[in-house]
Design goal:
single chain; 262 residues; alpha/beta; Trna Endonuclease, Chain: A, domain 1; 2 domains; 5-stranded mixed β-sheet; 4-stranded mixed β-sheet; 8 helices; 12 strands; 34% helix
Length: 262
């Protein structure tokens, strides 16, 4: 992704919008928003959300830093001050270059969620820690058209995506998202290779989210396509790039959102 604050904000906005489209209601989204605090003062917020989930109103203010240097303590103090005066608002500080030690400590001391650029592929887990009904596919989610594996704890997803090893063209080992065309096929793979995982359906909103995250981190998907043989049905793995998957299986053209993430 190019070193552009606007592009970075667009990426964060799209990730959250995709998650909220799955479960949220009465969603209001704004970039470069002017938000009024409890005292009538106004603040500029990079990405600001208001939405309802299960009858509860949520507000999320996100600060996006796409600079070459880590965030300094003064910047952390400034953002924490905004959140302190905003009513019922969750603060999230995301920096592609990380945080200086003093800045990170200040954010932790004041309850501000903070993540570095390397954490972005796990943004679903970030949101799950605050509004899990949005970020995690429920047991009733159906594959549209895929099913996948999530890390599990006592049969419930823990907010992580279960990856499988893949050897790249250069011979290096990487991790890829597994996708299956049916729940029984995914369950059979889980029982054989990842018994601690959970099988979940990937609806279109979540599929767009996974494709964007994979594209941003140069990851691939392994699609297990069933084939009928003399010995029964066998699963043949196919390696897909996020762009190839989006072109073939997404109901929305997300190529524009993928631009700049080579």
């Amino acid at each position: 992704m190019p070193n552009s604050g606007e592009t970075f904000e667009s990426y964060i906005q799209f990730v959250y919008q995709t998650l909220l489209n799955n479960r949220g209601e009465n969603i209001s989204v704004a970039r470069r928003a002017t938000v009024r605090d409890n005292h009538g003062n106004t603040y500029n917020i990079d990405v600001f959300y208001e939405f309802d989930v299960a009858g509860v109103h949520h507000r999320v203010a996100i600060e996006c830093k796409d600079t070459r240097r880590p965030v300094e303590r003064d910047e952390a103090i400034s953002f924490a001050g905004k959140i302190r005066d905003l009513p019922s608002t969750i603060g999230i500080f995301i920096s592609k270059s990380g945080f200086q030690r003093a800045a990170k400590k200040y954010l932790e001391d004041h309850g501000i969620v903070h993540y570095s650029g390397g954490d972005l592929p796990h943004l679903g887990q970030v949101v799950a820690s605050m509004i899990s009904s949005i970020a995690l596919p429920g047991n009733s989610a159906t594959g549209q058209p895929f099913w996948t594996l999530m890390g599990g704890n006592d049969g419930e997803p823990d907010g992580t995506w279960r990856m499988i090893p893949l050897q790249s063209e250069s011979g290096e080992q990487e991790e890829a998202f597994p996708l299956f065309f049916s729940k029984p096929q995914a369950e059979a793979f889980r029982a054989r290779c990842a018994p601690e995982a959970c099988v979940r359906g990937v609806e279109q909103g979540m599929l767009r989210f996974l494709m964007l995250c994979a594209n941003n981190e140069n990851r691939h998907f392994v699609v297990f396509r069933p084939a009928l043989t003399d010995d029964g049905v066998r699963l043949g793995p196919e390696v897909w790039t996020p762009r190839e998957l989006a072109s073939e299986f997404s109901t929305e053209d997300i190529s524009v959102k993928m631009k700049g993430s080579q």
